[in-house]
Amino acid sequence: MIWTNWARTASATPVRQVRPATEEELSDAVRQAVRDGLTVRPVGAGHSFSAAAATDGVQVDLERLTALHRVERDPATGNALVTVGAGIRLHQLNRLLAERGLAMQNLGDIDRQSIAGAVSTGTHGTGARFGGLATRVRALTVVGADGEVRHCSPTENADLFEASRLGLGTTGVLSTVTVEAVPAFDLRATEDVQPLDHVLGHLDQLVDEADHFEFFWFPTARRVQTLTNTRVAPRAEHGRPARAGRRVLGAAGAVRTFVHEEVLSNAGLELVNRTATAFPATTPTLNRFAAQALRPRTYTAPSHEVLCNPRRVRFRETEYAVPRAVVVDVLRELDGWLRRTGENVPFPLEIRFAPAEDVWLSTAHGRETAYVAVQQYWRLPYGRYFDAAEQIFGAVGGRPHWGKMHTRDAGYLAGQYPRFEDFRRTRDAADPDRVFSNAYTRRVLG
Ligand SMILES: Cc1cc2nc3c(=O)[nH]c(=O)nc-3n(C[C@H](O)[C@H](O)[C@H](O)COP(=O)(O)OP(=O)(O)OC[C@H]3O[C@@H](n4cnc5c(N)ncnc54)[C@H](O)[C@@H]3O)c2cc1C
User: Fold this and answer.
1) For burial by CB atoms within 10 Å, which of 52, 73, 254, 348 has the most?
2) 231: which strand partners?
3) Which CATH number covers residue 198?
4) CA angle 50-379-45, nearest 5°?
């Protein structure tokens, strides 16, 4: 069986694939692999661009461990603690939460990933006060190399908890994850097109005054698409049941929504990229067109519907977390490189923001962060572009997303994470024989 990831940037031929339906079956699968002298890799939705989930040993697919186990009230915050099977996909989790009047505090761009895969690679959204998914994990259970199930939280197996809530599955296989959810909320989404210089000149204000701010920038275009989402009480603005937010736009609005989401983001983006691939000289014009094509719009909808969107155009991506204080310089350098070389890039950069986080291997650990995602259409070469971007990011102490493409190794990464040695010590104790390893984890963790 040949396994490939969504982006077709990684493939592998596992000796066997198992789909445990219970925690006991999961433990047995790990024990059997160890008896057979094989390595083990859990896999979620295969949406990492890096080869994090690849294995030539036993692939453990958790698609059958998706149950909702319990919903409790956290006495400290009053929020709900929701325990689910680690293989649950984010869209399933979002639906379960919405049915109970709950929501994830923040989400990334899509909802196809498993919760375990998303937290294990440091998946994040945007918002200067709202951290990545791993920051919302309050407890988990992990099946170790000895097949034992260990409950972990800040007060029980605390180091294993820290290393497992963002650890690329190298301390064991997560079987359940407990996340802190918040009361359901809507987002008032404002999409706009603004001059690049204005956005870069007022960046702190735009980021700090919004709940969730990000922007898309088609290379060399002088205008960018800004997305500003404001948290509001459910139904406060449109006065209709949740999900009606987009429908209140009426017929004209529906056409605009279709133009935005299908023509410009999916089918239209595909057409632009195919044209740019066949006729590279058209790319600057296409980028200018794409940057201007969006018309400002505002709508209100439940949070997960605003934050997560379908992404049907296949692409490659490297993304680095850089100190927020230097992101404008980083973007100007990238702009300079793209202009000097005339590289054919008809895909936008995406720039997002996060607060400092305490998770040991979070790319936002200990510093206010800006994320710069460098994306390329899958039919076009990406090597020179990504190399140049990595050099620019590396010069400012950038940290690559664990689930995206990059060339860094443990030597570089150890210098970027103050708790790297704590992580390695905990991993050594949990998995001294490196049962849960592959070529990627050996490169990035040593
Ligand atoms: C179109 C697209 C959009 C994306 N948008 C964003 C975004 O907005 N923000 C962002 O930060 N990232 C984003 N990503 C990256 C993505 O969120 C991460 O790569 C995430 O890990 C994918 O989850 P998955 O379930 O597919 O995990 P996989 O890719 O299958 O696995 C990822 C890692 O998790 C481990 N793992 C999986 N299951 C378990 C388990 N049960 N126990 C222990 N370890 C486990 C695997 O071994 C592997 O190391 C995007 C990716 C794509 C393709």
Assistant:
1) 52
2) 187
3) 3.40.462.10
4) 35
Question: What is the distance in A from the centroid of ligand 1 to the CA of 46?
Answer: 7
State the distance from the centre of ligand 1 to the C-alpha of 278, rounded, in angstroms.
32
Q: How many domains does the chain have?
A: 1
375-392 confidence digits (pLDDT tens): 999 999 999 999 999 999
Q: Are strands 58-61 and 40-43 parallel, antiparallel or unpaired?
A: parallel
| Contact indicator for 402, 441 with CB cutoff of 8 Å | no
Domain holding 238, by residue range, is: 186-400
Q: What DSSP element (H or E) covers 84?
A: strand 80-85
Contact predicate 426/150, CB 8 Å: no
Residue 198: what are its φ and ψ, rounded to 5°? Answer: -65, -45
179 located within any domain: no
Asked whether the predicted pLDDT for residue 250 surpasses 80, the reply is: no
CA 363 to ligand 1 center in whole angstroms: 14
How much distance in Å is there from the Cα of 336 to the middle of ligand 1? 32
Whether 58 is covered by a domain: the verdict is no
Give nearest CA residue, ligand 1 atom 7: 108
Burial class, 443, CB count within 10 angstroms (exposed 0-12 / middle 13-18 / buried 19+): middle
Which phi and psi (to 5°) does residue 393 adopt?
-65, -40
Tokens 């969006």 sit at which residue? 294
The C-alpha atoms of residue 249 and residue 264 are separated, in whole angstroms, by 18
Q: If you search the block for the tokens 């410009």, which residue do you land on?
A: 264
List phi, psi (to 5°) of 425: -60, -45
How far apart are the CA of 51 and the centre of ligand 1, in A? 11
341 in a domain, yes or no?
yes
Question: Quick check: is 344 in a domain?
Answer: yes
Nearest CA owner, ligand 1 atom 41: 174
Lowest-confidence region among 190-204, 252-266, 296-310: 252-266
Distance 115 CA to ligand 1 centre (A): 8
Find the helix packing angle between 283-293 and 267-278, rounded to 10°.
160
Ligand 1 atom at shortest distance from the alpha carbon of 46? 30
**What are the φ/ψ torsions at residue 326 (nearest 5 degrees)?**
-110, 10
Q: What is the mean pLDDT of the chain?
A: 92
Using CB distances shorter than 6 Å, the residues near ligand 1 are 6-7, 41-48, 52-53, 62, 86, 108-110, 113-114, 116-118, 120-121, 123-124, 168-169, 173-174, 311, 401, 403
